UniProtKB/TrEMBL annotation, chain A:
<keyword id="KW-0698">rRNA processing</keyword>
<keyword id="KW-0007">Acetylation</keyword>
<dbReference type="GO" id="GO:0034475">
    <property type="term" value="P:U4 snRNA 3'-end processing"/>
</dbReference>
<dbReference type="InterPro" id="IPR048541">
    <property type="entry name" value="RRP40_N"/>
</dbReference>
<dbReference type="GO" id="GO:0005730">
    <property type="term" value="C:nucleolus"/>
</dbReference>
<dbReference type="GO" id="GO:0000467">
    <property type="term" value="P:exonucleolytic trimming to generate mature 3'-end of 5.8S rRNA from tricistronic rRNA transcript (SSU-rRNA, 5.8S rRNA, LSU-rRNA)"/>
</dbReference>
<dbReference type="InterPro" id="IPR026699">
    <property type="entry name" value="Exosome_RNA_bind1/RRP40/RRP4"/>
</dbReference>
<dbReference type="InterPro" id="IPR037319">
    <property type="entry name" value="Rrp40_S1"/>
</dbReference>
<protein>
    <recommendedName>
        <fullName>Exosome complex component RRP40</fullName>
    </recommendedName>
</protein>
UniProtKB/TrEMBL annotation, chain B:
<dbReference type="Pfam" id="PF10175">
    <property type="entry name" value="MPP6"/>
</dbReference>
<feature type="compositionally biased region" description="Acidic residues">
    <location>
        <begin position="141"/>
        <end position="150"/>
    </location>
</feature>
<feature type="compositionally biased region" description="Basic residues">
    <location>
        <begin position="157"/>
        <end position="170"/>
    </location>
</feature>
<dbReference type="GO" id="GO:0000460">
    <property type="term" value="P:maturation of 5.8S rRNA"/>
</dbReference>
<dbReference type="InterPro" id="IPR019324">
    <property type="entry name" value="MPP6"/>
</dbReference>
<feature type="region of interest" description="Disordered">
    <location>
        <begin position="140"/>
        <end position="170"/>
    </location>
</feature>
<protein>
    <submittedName>
        <fullName>MPH6 phase</fullName>
    </submittedName>
</protein>
Length: 251, 170
């Protein structure tokens, strides 16, 4: 295997073994000697999506670019591209209500199974005071249970009981699907695309980690313009995007 | 009759909780030891030396949220939805607040020494206000005497006697 630091920012393929600092030898004793000499990993190392722990190193399981974050003990992950969403605990997603089964709503989140959402998982909901959720509504919530053995479960409140923006997404607007990589790009702090779009018209935007985006602007035309730009952003370069936006604001 | 009944009861019955309430501690201990012996004889164990598990410091994580620094998913621009705009500021500053929390020491407006000095005098003056009359008089006399005779360690029996409880004579 090769050292993990050498491959940061480069393409890695499944099956590559990444070695971490302090673990260049398989022998446990020499490992201890090294730890005192070289850069010791402080705290726990986070092995993110696309990587698996394998002995003393990390095994790549998805192809993509290797990323590294030195803060907070360090984290390595693979920035890969995919369209199919797999529910992960803690992710905020947009779900479509497909059925009401007693006290529980079934939501389609784009995974292999519909997620369940209890009617009590809304802010200020009690047994008497039920939320007004109909089939076909859009809900922005987060996963509390999401593993391969169980049906995913969602809630629309956070750990302190507040909704903090989650819940039923209002009327009108337009829902469409993009790839997961674009969503993460849009959610990066100080994203250029979002900044440029925000200069155009007033609009509202909800991004779900499952690839779904909901847009609402004052008129249908403005909404569709924003939708088209976001969809095309996947394959446009920065200059092309700026040209397109310049044409729009010129009109 | 009671003695006959005792000898006919089985061991399992005697081991039950309700039968043991009347026993003394010694017999209880004996019964416990017997039970442990039976269990440990039946207990299977591996005849293999213990494997020392290497302490692993790598945590596996399937979520991108914990790796990357992502902003909150609900956004609104140019005042389209004012509540969401307020929420945006709140959520995004919450993330930054977590970084700032490490340096939590606030600079004090008043230094510690000055605080102690003020507190000393303050507590004394306010405290005097709420004393009962008797104690106020004592305090006043004490202060005057202190000023007149500094370093005098003789107790003043007349004043001290007033404070003590005098037993009523028959």
């Amino acid at each position: 295997g090769t050292a993990a630091e050498a491959l940061v920012g480069q393409v890695v393929l499944p099956g590559d073994l990444l070695l971490l600092p302090g673990h260049y030898d398989e022998d446990a004793e020499s490992e201890r000697l090294r730890l005192s000499a070289g850069a010791t990993p402080q705290g726990r190392l986070l092995c993110g999506p696309g990587l698996r722990r394998s002995g003393a190193g990390l095994l790549v399981t998805k192809c993509g670019l290797l990323r590294h974050r030195p803060a907070g003990g360090g984290a390595y992950w693979v920035d890969s591209q995919q369209k199919r969403y797999v529910p992960v605990k803690g992710d905020h997603v947009i779900g479509i209500v497909t059925a009401k089964a007693g006290d529980v709503f079934r939501l389609d989140v784009g995974g292999s199974e519909p997620a369940s959402l209890s009617y009590l998982a809304f802010e200020g909901a009690t047994k008497r005071n039920r939320p007004n959720v109909q089939v076909g509504d859009l809900i922005y919530g987060q996963f509390v249970v999401a593993n391969k053995d169980m049906e995913p479960e969602m809630v629309c409140i956070d750990s302190s009981g507040k909704s903090s923006g989650m819940g039923i997404i209002g009327q009108d607007g337009f829902l469409f699907k993009v790839s997961l990589g674009l969503i993460r790009k849009l959610l990066a702090p100080k994203c250029e695309i979002i900044q440029e779009l925000s200069q155009l018209y007033p609009f509202e935007l909800v991004l779900g980690m499952n690839g779904r985006i909901w847009v609402k602007a004052k008129t249908i035309q403005q909404t569709l313009i924003i939708v088209n730009i976001l969809e095309a952003c996947e394959y446009m370069t920065a200059e092309q995007r700026k040209q397109a936006l310049a044409k729009l604001s010129g009109n | 009759m009671a003695g006959d009944v005792k000898t006919k009861l089985s061991k399992n019955l005697l081991r039950m909780k309700f039968m043991q309430r009347g026993l003394d501690s010694q017999t209880k201990k004996q019964l416990e030891e017997e039970e442990k012996k039976i269990i440990s004889e039946e207990h299977w164990y591996l005849d293999v030396p213990d494997l020392k598990e290497k302490e692993s410091y790598i945590i596996e994580e399937r979520s991108f949220l914990r790796c990357e620094d992502l902003v909150y998913g609900r956004m609104s621009f140019k005042g389209f939805n004012p509540e969401i705009e307020k929420l945006m500021i709140q959520m995004n500053s919450k993330c930054k607040e977590e970084e700032i929390e490490e340096d939590d020491k606030m600079e004090a407006d008043v230094s510690d020494e000055e605080m102690a000095r003020r507190y000393e005098t303050l507590v004394g003056t306010i405290g005097k206000k709420f004393l009962r009359k008797r104690d106020q008089r004592v305090l006043k006399d004490d202060d005057e005497d202190d000023e007149v005779e500094e370093g005098n360690s003789n107790p003043r029996p007349s004043k001290r006697a007033k404070k003590m409880f005098l037993k009523p004579q028959d």
